[in-house]
Design brief:
The complex is a heterodimer of chains A (about 290) and B (about 250). Chain A is about 70% helix and about 0% strand. Chain A has helices at about 5-25, 25-40, 50-70, 90-115, 120-125, 130-160, 170-190, 200-210, 225-235, 240-250, 255-285. In chain A, α4 packs antiparallel against α6 (about 130-160) and α4 (about 90-115) packs antiparallel against α8 (about 200-210). Chain A is globular, with a radius of gyration of 21 Å. Chain B is α/β, with parallel strands linked by helices and about 250 residues long. In chain B, α4 (about 105-115) crosses α5, α4 (about 105-115) runs parallel beside α6 (about 150-160) and α8 (about 205-215) runs antiparallel to α9 (about 230-245). Chain B is globular and about 50 Å long. Classes of the chains: A mainly alpha (about 290), B alpha/beta (about 250). The complex binds adenosine-5'-diphosphate and magnesium ion (MG).
Chain lengths: ~290, ~250
């Protein structure tokens, strides 16, 4: 065997062993995530209600600011359900973008802190370090799934948009999105270990990303702003993911095939880059804590 | 008795505090101007050979490299040079209550701590009652751990650590906390472990404990092995040196 294939064989075996190790510790990741979730609301009066309240308040704030004050799109939240293919009422449009975006945002803020905030665990026990960003990801995923429930109830009651056959696409969409967030969160987790400044930068970055994404305004807002702006806007990796959500939430018309393909490419690309750079760096992490 | 449990050769760990420790933007900017980064050799070519059934003590001043050496043995820190081989299941009681979340109940923390240490949930289910009984927690198990006394906390944490049924136990000043009853209890558990041909590496400032409890000991000074041998001799030599330093 030529030396390169021996080396790559060894790399494949190492990767496989790592993943097996990771899988055998899945209960740990789960308990870590659930423990943090439980602890977070343990001392609040409303306790579990915060699960529903958080997305409701998040949606209300943006709906008030952008729907009412800036008078963007349809203010009449009770407008009838629109047939698939037509434009969504503003509330449905806003929430169908806001909740998924918030999932990406919390994945990044959770990931960027996941190593640093578990320094004691890292110093004392050896385990696949990927457990830590994964536990943080589980935490934000649970919050997101609650908000999906909130979405269907609120948008159903207010806009009359209920789940339809298109909603079957929600599962693959969420799976792609989880992979996408996993990639982002491991990348920021990896960088934040030697470069703590990232903790401070991430909130500004996500804020900027929110404003550059079709969430608070519609993509049509950019029409006539020049070809460059429009192309750049569509290069936003969240763009195809948001399209998939709007399709599976409300059945708006999209080019499903190409949107899926681009979304998967981004998700797989980021996940592979994130996981490999994270794992390669694992052995050095303890020195920075 | 002479089967090896832990064998380390030429272990060297260097920290580059300016570069390695939290290189914030400010320090990074400072680093751009004067580039020299002072290397700190936390462990310098340390050889280590600990046998099965042995209690091995490590003494030395603060900053001598004791914790760093234990981290290398626990494999949470990869040395810059040298090799380390550990034969057996380690329970890293480097610090007590690692993985615990103080806001959660004792019950929940048994699972968190046990899973963190490498147990499976099923194994914890099976051992749960024993863990609680050994920790003498009784009905406090469902109270948040932050409301525990330090004695209760130490007992629970130690009990969870021992639930791994380790062959190798790494203790970093663990027994400095907790009350007298806990200390006696943990000493007994450690003796039982040794009787079952387990291995204990024991870092402590309680020199009489080291002398009495350990078979052999190592004296680390500035990351180098100053002496290694029967624990009473090493502790004596270390004590003399400390006194001489004080009287100067
Ligand atoms: N993560 C780290 N980064 C930089 N220096 C470190 C780090 N950990 C330990 N050191 C340094 O290494 C030396 C040995 O530390 P340690 O092993 O904790 O000593 P001991 O446990 O004997 O008191 C000390 O000078 C300490 O400051
Ligand atoms: Mg120490």
């Amino acid at each position: 065997m030529p030396p390169t294939s021996v080396a790559s064989g060894r790399a494949v075996r190492a990767a496989r062993n790592y993943l097996l190790d990771l899988w055998s510790r899945r209960e740990f990741a789960w308990y870590l995530a659930m423990g943090n979730l439980k602890a977070r609301n343990a001392s609040t009066t409303l306790g579990l209600f915060w699960w529903v309240l958080n997305p409701l308040l998040l949606g209300s704030v943006y709906w008030l600011v952008f729907g009412l004050i800036f008078d963007r799109g349809t203010l009449d939240v009770t407008s009838r359900a629109l047939a698939p293919g037509e434009e969504l009422p503003f509330l449905a449009y806003l929430l169908s973008g806001m909740f998924p975006f918030y999932f990406t945002q919390t994945s990044m803020t959770g990931g960027v802190n996941s190593i640093v905030s578990n320094a004691r665990l890292m110093a004392n026990l050896s385990f696949p370090r990927l457990i830590l960003p994964i536990a943080a990801l589980i935490e934000s995923a649970v919050g997101f799934l609650t908000s999906v429930g909130v979405f269907f109830v609120v948008v159903g009651l207010v806009n009359g948009i209920w789940p339809g056959p298109w909603t079957l696409w929600l599962l693959p969409t969420i799976m792609i999105h989880v992979l996408f967030n996993f990639g982002l969160s491991t990348i920021v987790a990896r960088i934040a270990v030697p470069f703590r400044d990232l903790n401070n930068l991430v909130p500004y970055f996500t804020r900027l990303w929110l404003y550059l994404s079709p969430i608070l305004y519609q993509a049509s807002f950019l029409e006539g702003k020049g070809e460059f702006v429009e192309t750049a806007f569509r290069l936003n990796p969240l763009f195809p993911i948001l399209e998939l959500y709007r399709y599976s939430f409300a059945g708006i018309e999209i080019d499903l095939g190409s949107t899926l393909l681009i979304a998967i490419a981004w998700a797989v690309g980021l996940a592979v880059i994130g996981a490999t750079s994270f794992i390669k760096y694992e052995g050095k992490m303890a020195r920075y804590l | 008795m002479s089967t090896p449990a832990i064998v380390g050769e030429g272990i060297t760990v260097r920290f580059r505090p300016m570069v390695d420790r939290k290189p914030t933007l400010r320090r990074s900017l400072g680093r751009m101007q004067h580039r020299e980064t002072k290397e700190l050799v936390a462990l310098d070519n340390v050889d280590l050979s600990i046998k099965k059934g042995e209690a091995f003590g490590i003494v030395g001043r603060n900053g001598a490299g004791k914790s760093t050496l234990l981290k290398v043995v626990a494999k949470t820190l990869r040395p810059d040079e040298g090799t380390i081989n550990v034969f057996g299941k380690t329970s890293t009681l480097l610090q007590l209550g690692v993985g615990f979340n103080p806001h959660l109940s004792g019950r929940r923390n048994v699972y968190l701590g046990g899973l963190a240490a490498g147990l499976r949930k099923k194994e914890i289910d099976e051992r749960f009652d024993d863990i609680i009984e050994y920790a003498e927690l009784w009905d406090a198990v469902d109270r948040p751990v932050r409301t525990y006394s330090s004695g209760m906390f130490s007992r629970l944490a130690f009990s969870v650590g021992m639930a791994m049924e380790p062959n190798i136990l790494l203790l970093d000043e663990v027994l400095a906390v907790g009350d007298e009853a806990f200390r006696e209890k943990s000493m007994k558990a450690m003796r039982d472990l040794l009787d079952r041909a387990g291995t204990i590496v024991f870092v402590s400032h309680a020199l009489p404990n080291v002398a009495e409890f350990c078979d052999r000991a190592m004296w680390l000074a500035d990351g180098k092995v100053r002496s290694i041998g029967p624990s009473a001799d090493v502790v004596d030599a270390y004590k003399t040196a400390v006194h001489r330093g004080k009287n100067k």
